[in-house]
Every structure is written in C-alpha cells, then in structure tokens.
C-alpha cells in the first residue's frame, strides 16, 4: 500500500509498505480523506514540540472498515467511520477522573504514534466513531469540529449570552458553529476580513469584528455596554489572548483553545475584579465527537464548508507546504485517496 512518511523536518517520502496485519481488538480501516491541520505543518517544519521522527502524519481522517473486528461486529466491511485519534492511558489521574482528553501520557495519532497518511491503518475498535449518513468530506471534519464542540461544552455556553470567539480558522469556526447550536449570540473576531465573511456566510455568526478596527467599542455597542460573558480564543496568538480580558463582562469566563509557546499575562486587578474564570480546552472526548456527528447528520452544521482545497494523495508531498498559507485563501485542505 502507499504511505507518506515525514522522515525528518522538511522531508517527506512517498513509499510502498505492507498492509497492516490485524491484531487483537483492532480493526483495519481504509483511509479515504485526510484533513491537513496546523499540527501536521508544524511537524513537517520541525516546530512541533515533543515530536519524534520518522512519523506518518495525519489525524483528521475519513475511513471505511476494511477488515471488521469479527463477524459479529456492528461495523461491517465498507461501513463509514472515523476514530478518536488520541489514545489515553486509562490509568493516570486525569483518566481516572474522567478526563482522558488531557491524559498525562496521551498518544496522538500522527503525533506520538503513526497517523493516517497511508492507505490502510489499524485502530482499536473502541476508538471508532460511527459515520453512518456522513460523506467522506464531512467525516474528515469531525475531529477538528470536535475540538470546537469540546470548548463550547466545557465553557457551558448558554442560550442568548454574548460570546466572543477570536480566530476564524477551522478551529474557531467549529467553536462558532457549536456556540450557535447552544443558542448563543456569537461575535466572531479576526484580523482577516475574508475569514470573517466566511464565518457569517457558512457558520451563521451574528456579528463580526475586525480586531484591528476599534474592537472594544464595537463589542461594547453590540452588547449594550455590558461586554461578553464568555471569550473563547482560537487564535493561538499571544496578543489576542492577552487582549481577551478587555472584552469580558464581570463574572465572565475565558477559554483558550488555541495554543502558543510564550508565557502570557493579564493585568491582575482587571482579572480579579471580574472574578474571571480562565481555563484551557484540550482535544475532545467521545461525547464531543458524538455531538458533532449528530449535528452534521441532522444538517445543523455544514462541516464540509470548511474544505477550500483538495489534493490527490500522490501530489501531497509537492504541495504540502502551501496548504496552510492563508494567503492562498485556504481554510481547510483535504487529501483524497
Ligand atoms: N485545543 C486543542 O486541542 C487544539 C487542537 C487543534 C488546534 N488547536 C489550536 O487552535 C488554534 C487555531 O487553529 P486553526 O487551525 O484554526 O488556526 P488558523 O491559523 O487557521 O486560525 C487562526 C486565526 O486566528 C486569526 N488571528 C491571528 N491573530 C489574531 C489576533 N490578534 N486577533 C484576532 N484574530 C487573530 C488568524 O487570522 C486566523 O484566521 C491554534 O493555536 C492551534 O494550535 C488547538
Ligand atoms: Zn488537527
Ligand atoms: Zn491517562
């Protein structure tokens, strides 16, 4: 079968390898689509922390069952599936407390263990997510959407509250989609007007604000002077993160989905007087994956709208570095097998 492996930073190799031999508890999947994400690019560039090479990248996958677990399995050959691509240890303190998404020893496909830039992959059956009724394009968007759904769930976004979501990339757009599903009044903020327009058109956000144009006054006007009761950051930009507090109402909460490498700081009196709740949001759980699939299936979320670029598997090594450059208008690029 064909496979693309990242041998070292900056170097991909397309190679032929044997198909995986199914081992106990596992199913073999045929990969149909691979979404490309920032993690893949950082791994390729050599800027992803805690990353070892060689590594097969790719964790946003649309698959179908190639070899079922056994003849009694719910999933027969050809059944559409994706899987939760982070494997927790099931014994650490986070796992024991029902937080496998932030397991101390989490193994991410395409990060710590080999991922999906390959024709066939085997995974434990318990990691599967049933993709019945979803197209391959939609299935490949389930994982990035689940990141957003998780952030919305743990922030407990409520009906009619004003929520500011900074960063209208694929992750932020997922946050917006699920904040809308919870009934919030969603304000999208970015520095890229095309992305803001996109958020309005395909993800139904109520208001858009350019971060570079009197953002505080605009948000004050939208919220009748009260500011927003939740900010969810999906920029991974230090300046945006440190600026979140000035848009936040007293009693409000900030959730950081985006990540960056530096320390960040808040003015302590400003943080204190709001009795601010600050938390991060990492990965997603089965509950979030199921919520995403359900809302794609019932037509409430147009996940496939994220896909702006398509690449045949055989061309991937040539075009990969361009696939995350916003100047090309890319939102989400997808590889077709
Ligand atoms: N929580 C998780 O488990 C998880 C999973 C995947 C990705 N992420 C992180 O989520 C973040 C977003 O990922 P993405 O793929 O959507 O990235 P992206 O780069 O496509 O999108 C980020 C957006 O933020 C905007 N932005 C940058 N600086 C800004 C500023 N100062 N003010 C307003 N907008 C600004 C950019 O214009 C861009 O549209 C990244 O930090 C990524 O590492 C987190
Ligand atoms: Zn991803
Ligand atoms: Zn664990």
Question: Briefly, what is this?
Answer:
The chain has about 325 residues and is α/β, with parallel strands linked by helices.
The CATH topology of the largest domain is given as Quinone Oxidoreductase, Chain A, domain 1
Instruction: Supply the number of helical segments.
Output: 11
Beta fraction: 25-35%
Class inferred from helices and paired strands = alpha/beta
Radius of gyration: 20 Å
Q: From N to C, what is the helix and strand string? A: EEEHEEEHEEEHHEHEHEHEHEHEHEHE
Query: What is the CATH class name of the largest domain?
Result: Alpha Beta
Give the end-to-end Cα distance, rounded to a whole number of Å.
Answer: 12 Å
Q: What is the total domain count?
A: 2
State the share of residues found in helices, binned by percent: 25-40%
Q: What small-molecule ligands were found? A: nicotinamide-adenine-dinucleotide, zinc ion
CATH H-level superfamily title of the largest domain? Medium-chain alcohol dehydrogenases, catalytic domain
Characterize the largest beta sheet: strand count, sense, and whether it forms a barrel. 7 strands, mixed
CATH architecture of the largest domain: Alpha-Beta Complex
Mean pLDDT rating: 96
């Amino acid at each position: 079968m064909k496979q693309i492996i990242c041998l070292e930073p900056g170097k991909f190799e397309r190679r032929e390898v044997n198909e995986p031999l199914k081992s106990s508890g596992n199913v073999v999947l045929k990969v149909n689509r691979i979404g490309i994400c920032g993690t893949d690019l950082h791994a390729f560039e050599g800027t992803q922390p805690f990353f070892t090479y060689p590594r097969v990248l790719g964790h946003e996958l649309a698959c179908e069952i190639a070899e079922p677990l056994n003849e009694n399995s719910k999933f027969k050959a050809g059944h559409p599936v994706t899987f939760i691509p982070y494997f927790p240890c099931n014994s650490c303190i986070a796992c024991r407390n029902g937080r496998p998404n932030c397991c101390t020893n989490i193994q991410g496909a395409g990060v710590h263990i080999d991922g999906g830039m390959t024709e066939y992959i085997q995974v434990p059956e318990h990691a599967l997510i049933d993709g019945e009724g979803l197209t391959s394009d939609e299935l490949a968007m389930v994982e990035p959407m689940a990141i957003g759904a998780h952030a919305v769930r743990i922030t407990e976004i409520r009906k009619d509250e004003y929520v500011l979501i900074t960063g209208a990339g694929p992750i932020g757009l997922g946050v917006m989609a699920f904040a809308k599903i919870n009934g919030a009044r969603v304000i999208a903020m970015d520095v890229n007007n095309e992305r803001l327009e996109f958020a309005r058109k395909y993800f139904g956000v109520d208001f858009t604000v350019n971060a570079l144009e009197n953002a505080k006054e605009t948000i004050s006007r939208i919220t009748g002077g009260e500011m927003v009761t939740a900010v969810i950051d999906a920029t991974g930009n230090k300046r945006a993160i440190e600026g979140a507090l000035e848009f936040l109402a007293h009693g409000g909460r900030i959730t950081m989905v985006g990540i960056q490498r530096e320390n960040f700081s808040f003015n302590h009196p400003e943080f204190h007087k709001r009795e601010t709740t600050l938390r991060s949001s990492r990965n997603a759980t089965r509950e979030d994956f199921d919520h995403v699939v359900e809302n794609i299936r019932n037509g409430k979320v147009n996940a496939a709208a994220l896909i702006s670029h398509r690449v045949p598997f055989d061309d991937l090594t040539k075009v990969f570095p361009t696939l995350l450059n916003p100047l090309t208008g890319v939102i989400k690029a997808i590889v077709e097998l």
